[in-house]
Protein: Antitermination protein
Organism: Pseudoduganella flava
Amino acid sequence: MTERRDIGWRLENWARVVADDARRPASSQTGAICDRMRKAAEGTAPTSIDRRQVDEADAWLIERTMPQLPLNHRLMLWWCYIRMAQPEVVCRKMGIPHRPATEFVEKFRAAQAAIEALLEREGVNQ
């Protein structure tokens, strides 16, 4: 059995896959897969070290679990991982007091814990 991954790493991985996928000009998930297969056959598939280290399967498991989260947790994770916004921006956008800093940290950790709990409940703990 594989060792459980840190939720922060898993969410960073999720953000890289989802943000990368959002930039692809594919009309559907099937289109995105076909596009990747075509590029691999042509030998033009991405070969960077970062790309090889991405765990797409885990990222899509997280993506499928996201709708089960309360909206405030989803937004927190989106602002922090996908948009990579500074805490001050996240606080302003979400109506969280930016002082003391513990307000942001508590809400950020609560969002991480919420997705982790859902993944564990679904048996998708890696």
Notes: Residues 7-121 form one domain.
